Structure formats: structure tokens, C-alpha cells
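[09:14] KT: can someone run the structure on this one? pasting the chain below
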Amino acid sequence: MTEALVVGIPAAVFFALALVRPAWGLAFFALARGAADAFSDVRLDALGAGVNPASALGAAALVAAAVRARLLDRAALRLCGPLGILLAVVGFEAAVGLATFGAGHAGDALRELLRFASILAFFALVLTLPSARERRIVYLAVLAAIAMCAAWGAVQYAAGSGTFEAVSGVRRARGPFAYPNTLAYAALLGTVLLGGELLSGAPGRAGRWGRIAGAAALLAVLALTASVTVIALAFLALGLFLLLTRRTALLAAAVVLALAACPLLLPRLSMLAASEPSVDLADGHARNTLTARLDIWRGLLSVARERPVWGWGLRSVPRVSPVQDEIRGAGSEPHNDFLLFLVEGGAVGLAGFIAFHLAALRMLARRAAAAPAGARKGRLAGLWVMYACMLAGSLGNNLLSFTALLVLFWGAAAACVRDETENQAQSKPIAYGL
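[09:31] RB: done, C-alpha cells below
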């Protein structure tokens, strides 16, 4: 009974609000979806799959999107194109998985399809909002949800009962947002979204304070994470903003940030250089984050060479990879979205995944080019920078596993790309677009 209430009440509240007060319903969805991962262990068995609060919210979003689909015009449907490509690829992989493993694979396939479809549903629902003011409400809710995820993760991280890594001394607490790397991704996402708005839309003193706050937040990211991937993405975000703004003040902030980060960065790099390239099962964790991940990539590439041209299907990696027992024993997961899509979807999966990223980058770049100067253009530039970081991160991490962050990112994108300025003639893509 308790599980049914925890799973069902947020979904029911969202669905009712989505029909009566759509903007506030979607704001509730952003906050609830960000919090849902804290209760990911609460599951209700239905249709052969464990339904948790996030799954229930996703199902409610699909139904609400179906009800409000008539409000989507042709321009809005075109904006849904990148996510449509991703959903088609995942559907293909689900079909291959069912053909390979039979009906016993249906629960996994259904859960994964719902995970990706909920992102598209939330994006489409935000596009149905009739005014920029209502979309602004959703955008602010997304920022609040990102901050909530980071705060919740920090509390768990500080008070967690997890183990300490033998080399780096990083505490590993329970829950998806308790892990330092996921917490750092949340902080990076919020920093870049706010940074774009402040750098492009807030002149004078507000802009200076925005740059100072951005530098401080990036320092916090570096302090929280033991991941070279996240460290690299933090500097990539700062470098892209430098290219976009060309402001001397930002260059000074970059120099200060690099100098201040040295005490945080150098010990991690020396740790990576000195540690052994192995996975220590006895202590229940990877002895070295980078080299253990290289072992994972090596195993996935080995499996990819043996795969059929159409792959093994969605969620097949745990069934076919010879390194999975060792990886899971070490408390890790398969990383690198590109390799996962290659193993699960073969040539079709990898091509579709690349097409999804390219279409998303192009869409954001075109909208940023068409937007008038100001805060909205800054938000779109921030979204583009964040997406470039997420794309680069996919080379080293399984970012699609952080579904809550992806939901929030696409919610912010929907709140920014649909505006009255879309009716104007679009200019050429900006220099950092495709």
C-alpha cells in the first residue's frame, strides 16, 4: 500500500495539474522528477516490471502529452525531431532484444522505452504552453530542480554510509545523486544554464557577479568529483564560454580558476598516474576510476567485434559482456554511450545515436542564432554549451543513465526554443553551430 502511494500520488497530482493548469503542472513535474530518484528503490510490480515514482511520472507525462498533442503545430513537431530520432533508435533496439532474448526481456524493454519516451513527452508538453511567461515558469522550476538535486546529493554525500575509495578518499553514499560524479554533473548543468543567461543577458555589475559565481561553482564541481571526465567538462564549458563572449574579464576568471584548481586537480592526476590498472574486487570498488573504465571500454569493444550487425538489443550488455560480473562486483556500470549503442543497436544504433546528437546541436544553434540579443539568447547559448559538454561526456561516461538530468535539460530547452521570434526569418547558424 505504501509503495502504491509513493509511486502513484506524484503522478496523479501532475496529471491533474497538467490538464487544469499546464504550466504549474509541468513545474511540479520538473521538481518531482528531480526528487523521484531519491525514491528509486521504491518499486511497485506491474506488467512484469518494477514501477518506481520516476516511471509513474513518465507514464503520466505520456498520457498528458497524448491529450494535449492537438496543440502542437508543425514548427513544434519539427523541434521534437532529435528526440524522435533517439526514441526510434531505442525502439529498434528493444525489438532486437525481444527477438534475441524472447518475452523474458519485455520488462526491461518496456522500462527503457518509457524512460526515453518520458523525455520526449515532457519536451512536447512544454512546447504546448501558449506564452513565454508560462514557459519561463517551467524554466525556473527546472533550475530549482537542478539545485534540489545538487543539495540532496550533497546531504547524502556528507552523511552517507558508503565506503571510501582506497586511493582518492572519496565517500560513496547510496542513491543516484549521492555519488560525487553525478552530483558534479548536476552542478555543472545548473552552472552552465545560469552562466549563459548571466554572461549574455546581464550587463554591468550583475554580469560581473555572474562570472564570479560561475567560477566558484566550477571550483565546487572540481572539488566534488574524482572523475577526469567531469573535470575536463568543467574546463570545456569555461573554454566555450570564453569563445562565445570574448571578454577580458572571463579570461581573467579562467586564469584564476585554473590556478585555484591546481591543488584539486594535480593530486587526482598523480593518483591516476601512480595507481594500478586493475579492479580491486576485495575492497568492493575500482582501485582507479580511469583505468577501471578503460577496462570496461576494452570489454565492450571486444563484445562489439562479435556482435551481429544489428546488435544484441536493448539492455543486452549485462547478458553478453564477459566483463559484466567483474564490473558489477566492483560496484560500477558499463560506461560510454557510444559503445553501448554500438553493442545494443549495432550499426543502426550507433548511426541513430550520432544523428540524435547532431540534430539536437543544430536545433539549439539555429534557435540561438535567431534569438534577439539578451537573456534568452544567453540561455540558448548556455544550452548549446551544455549539450556540447554532454556530447563530449558521452565519450567517457554513460550520461543517458542520468535520466533526471536529461529530463531537466530538455525541459529547459523547450522553454527556450519556442518563442514568438521563431516566426521571424532565421539568420544563418552562429559560429559555434553546425
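[09:33] KT: thanks! Confidence is low (pLDDT under 50) at residues 161-173, 276-288, 420-434.
[09:34] RB: yep, looked fine to me
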